[in-house]
Each structure stands twice: as C-alpha cells, then as structure tokens.
Fold:
Amino acid sequence: MDIITLKYFVKVCENKSFTRSSRELFITQQALSRIIGNLEKEIAAPLFNRSHMGVSLTELGQYLYPKAKAITEAFEDFQEEAYIEAKKQKNNIKMGFSPGTLQVLRAKELMEFTDKYDDINLQISEYSDVACEANILNETLDTAFTVNPQNVVDFHYYPLITDHFVAVVNKNNAIAQKKSISFEDLRDESLILLDDTFRMQLVVTEHFRKAGIKPRVYSRCNHDLNTAYDFVALNKGIFIFVNSLAKVEAYDEIVRIPISVPTAFWDLGFIIKKDKKISQPLKRFMSYFLER
Structure:
C-alpha cells in the first residue's frame, strides 16, 4: 500500500466509476482495476461492489474512504509545503561578516540588494575572521566577507577592498607629528594590538618579524575596540588598526597616522569553500558588489 494507490482508491470512491476515474488519472481502466484489485488482496477484503451499473463502496470501503482521503490531502499539503520550503532554502544566503566589515560593505548597499532581489533571503551573522573561516569549512555559512585567509587549499577568495593600516596615537606622542610611519618607528613604543582571531594581526606580526622587532604589547583587544581608543586617549600605547575603521573623531586626544608600508594592508573580500558549487543566488549577490 502506498500513497498513489490510496489516491486511486479515493478517486474511484468519489467517481463511483473505474472508467471515469481512469480517464482523470490518465491511466488505462485495466491498470486501475489491477491496482485496486491488488489493494483488496493486500487487505484481504473487497472495497467495492461491482456491477454493470458501476461500483459502490462496501461497508469496509465506506469506513476506509474518509481516512484515505484525509491521508492523501495531508500528503498533498506536505508536498506543497516541502516545495515551498525547498525554494526558500535554495534562495537563502547564509553570510558571515568579520567585525567592522559590514561598515565597509555598508548596510544601505545590502538593503538596496535585497530590495532589488526580493526573492533572495540574506541571513547575516558576525564572527571573528578565524570563526568565519571555520563556519565556511563546516558549511554553516555559504560565504563570508572577511580578511583574505591566504589559504588556497581550503578557500576561493574574491578580493573586494584594500585599505592601509594606521597608528592611532595620542597627540602628546612624538609620532603624532609625523605624516606617515613605518614599523621601525614603532620599535620602542607600547602597542595595543588585536588578538589572533583577527587575520589583520597576522599581517602586522609578520611585518614586525621582518623588521626584526619584538613588539612591546600593552594590551590585546577582541571586539570591544572602545577599550583600545580609551588606552590611547590615556597615552598608554599606540593602537594599530585599519584606516577606514579607525574612529578617532570622538576623542580630542588622539589622531591616526598612516603606516606607509606597501605590503601592509587590509585585504578584504568574499571567501567560499574550495570546490563547493556556488548557487545562483550567491553568484548574483557576489556579482552585485564585485562589479561595483
């Protein structure tokens, strides 16, 4: 017994005719008779009284008809819901942003995209750079807008934005008088750095290593960057950050000085798991921003 057989049984019950039912079901009358006959054999009891006038339900048939109809209607509802939900899932984009990157991509741009493509549903979450990568690999996320992981084995990387680093400095520090600096200028300074969940920090650390400098770290920050600015305002150290994200305007005591090192920059873009097929909605989303 299966759902198709029950649908055929319900149809014959409603039409009280094998001939009419077979036409509506687009099968031969012989095939329909055989299917109903097999059902009767399976339950070991007749469901229809057959005569030259047509068919009528037996007592068992009358008992089973409303139950079979309820089952087939419930199955049709299930099918419709499954198709609708599958379509929704197909058009979902699960996207991660590392801290600060949503400011760069701009919420307004995202809203313009969702207005233009209202069939695509964006699901947005914020994670550290490292957590973005982990969620791409375990497929919790479809893509992430984050710093270049420099990992061609696990990821495809689509660059979108680059920006230079700055030193956020107290105005009383001599470095505040410079137009730009190098990492060598920070050799004897107390530093406020990001922790290792930020890929930017690996770039900074590598440039200190190449310069032969062991950084003097006053503090390492996670997501609460206000602490870093507060430390700089108190002249406890110099905060190394990204130019476009360094919000110094709220503090009278601090300024930002460019770090003019060509190889030291914030490389930001979309990452996708290597060898994973990119869905059409995701292609549309990425193209919308990459073409700009």
Notes: The CA atoms of residues 169 and 255 lie 5 Å apart.
